[in-house]
Amino acid sequence: MCDNGSSGSGLISKRKTITPFALLKSVSIYYQIILYMAFNKSFDIIYQKLLSDKTKKRSEQIILAIAIASFLIHLTIIYLVDYNLISIDTSSHLLNNPIAAIYTPFSFILVYEVYLLIHYLPKSITTYIGKQYEIISLIIIRRLFKDLSTLSLSSDWFKSKYDLQFTYDLVASVLLFFLIYQFHRQSSVRFVKGVHDEEEKNSIARFIKIKKVLAATLVPILIFVAIYSLISWCAGAIYPGDSKGVSFKNINNIFFEQFFTILIIADVILLLFSFFHTDEFHKVIRNSGFIISTILIRLSFSVSGLLSTVLIVSAIIFGLLILIIHNKFEERIAMEKSKTVSTNE
C-alpha cells in the first residue's frame, strides 16, 4: 500500500512540472508555426500571380500586342512629320527615318526580357546572369536601328561620329552573340556529384525560397522604376528647361541605368544569402565574379562611344571566363567524389 501511495504521489508531482511559462511557450511556438504556414500560403499565391508560367505567357502576349501597336504608331508619326501634316520640334533622330520606328517595339521587347530575367532568377543563377547578357546585347541591337537612321554614307566613314558608333555596335553585336552562346553552353554543363543528403536538400530548398522572395520583390520595384523613368523622360522632352525631370545622357539609357543598379543590389543580396547554402570557394568566386560583371555593364551606361562597347564586351568575357573556371572546379570535385565511391565499394 505504501508503495502504491508513493507511486501515485510521484505521478502527481510529475504533472505539476508543467508550469504556466512552459504552456505559454508551447502556445507561442504553435502560433509561430500557424503564422509561418499562413505566410507561405500567401506568398505562394503572390508568387503565382506575378511569376508563374501562366503569367509569363499572358505577359508575352500583352507585350507583343503593345510592341506591334507602338511600331505602327511610331511609323505613322514619322510619315505625318515627313509630309508636314504635323509639326514636332525634337532633336531626336527617332522621327527622321522609318527604320528608326523599329526602335520602339524593341524597347517593349526589352521590358519583357527584364521580366523573364526575374522569372528565371529562382530557377538558376547562371540562367539569370545569361539573361542579363542577353538584355545588354539586345540594347546594342536596338541601338543599331537608331544608328541606321543617322548614317552618312560617304568616303569619310571613319571620321563621322555616328558612323563609328554604328561600326562599334555592329562588331560588338556579333561578338556578344558568340560569347552568350558560349556562356549558355558552359551553364548547361552538369557534373554528377552523388546524392544530396537531407540537410543539403533542405539548404537548397531554403536558398530557392530566398530567391523566390527576392524575385517577387523585384517585380513591383522594376514596374515602378519603368513608369517613373518613362514619365521623367516624357516630362524632360516636353519641358526641356524643367530641372525636376531626370536627365539622361542617351535615350538608350532610359530605365536601364536604374535597372542594372538594382540588379547589382540583388546580386549582392544573393551572394550574402548563398553563404547559408554553401561556402565552397569556387561558388563564392563565381557569384562574386558575376557581380563584377554586372557592375561593368552598369558602368557602360555612364560613358559613350568605344569605351561603352569595350566595357560591355569585357563584362561578358569576364563572366564567361569565371564560369569556365568554376566548371573546372566542379569537374575536379565530381571526379574526386566518384573515386571515393569506387574505393568504398
List low-pLDDT spans: 4-16, 243-248
Largest sheet: none
> How helix-rich are the residues, as a percent range?
over 70%
Give the count of structural domains. 2
Number of helices: 10
**Rg value:** 28 Å
Question: What is the straight-line distance between the termini?
Answer: 62 Å
What is the 3D shape? globular
Give the topology string: H per helix, E per strand: HHHHHHHHHH
**Structural class estimated from helices and strands:** mainly alpha
Q: What is the mean pLDDT? A: 81
Strand content: under 5%
**How many E strands?**
0
How would you describe this structure to a colleague?
This protein is mostly helical. The chain has two domains: 19-51; 93-103 and 111-344, no CATH class. It is 77% helix and 0% strand. It contains ten helices and no strands. Helix 2 (20-51) packs across helix 7, helix 5 packs parallel to helix 9 (281-300) and helix 9 (281-300) runs antiparallel to helix 10 (306-344). The N and C termini lie far apart (62 Å).
